[in-house]
Design a protein that fits this description.
flat, single chain
């Protein structure tokens, strides 16, 4: 059975572990994005990617997401713009391929009606419930609101 490590071996062991960790970290780093050749095209691509939802993250735009799929979609948008496609054509292509979910501002139609009308419907339900509770409380007698425990000033020996 091995003997317990002595403190004189602890410092070199920790130094070796630290050296291995530092040597391994560059291997996990990603390659930097290449600089863009056409800043105007890149601005158009980022503006369009800002209107589309990342399919992996779902709470971020394609422009803001760091997911590999979002990076691929940005490259695909960039290539479509270079081929001369308009932003409307690219949006239509993305919608045809991924559905209305990919749009941050989906159109109003039968399949998205609940998305658009849902918040208003929930507000109406909440206000109706509040009105019903307030009407029910209004009909109760005043003694229904008396506390079951006496107040401090009603206790015997309380100072007045």
């Amino acid at each position: 059975m091995p003997e317990r490590l002595s403190p004189r071996w602890l410092a070199p062991l920790l130094a070796a572990c630290l050296a291995l960790m530092l040597a391994w970290s560059p291997a996990a780093a990603k390659e930097a994005a290449p600089s863009v050749a056409d800043p105007a095209l890149e601005a158009r691509m980022m503006a369009l990617a800002g209107q589309l939802r990342c399919l992996v993250c779902q709470n971020e735009t394609i422009a803001a997401s760091q997911a590999d799929l979002a990076s691929d979609l940005r490259q695909e948008i960039r290539e479509m713009l270079q081929r001369g496609m308009t932003e409307a054509q690219i949006r239509q292509y993305m919608t045809d391929r991924y559905g209305d979910f990919v749009l941050y501002d989906p159109p109003f139609k039968a399949t998205t009606a609940l998305l658009w009308l849902g918040p208003a419907l929930l507000l109406v339900i909440a206000l109706t419930a509040l009105y019903a509770v307030l009407r029910r409380r209004q009909r109760l007698s005043a003694d229904a609101f008396d506390p079951e425990t006496p107040d401090d000033d009603e206790l015997p020996g309380a100072n007045r």
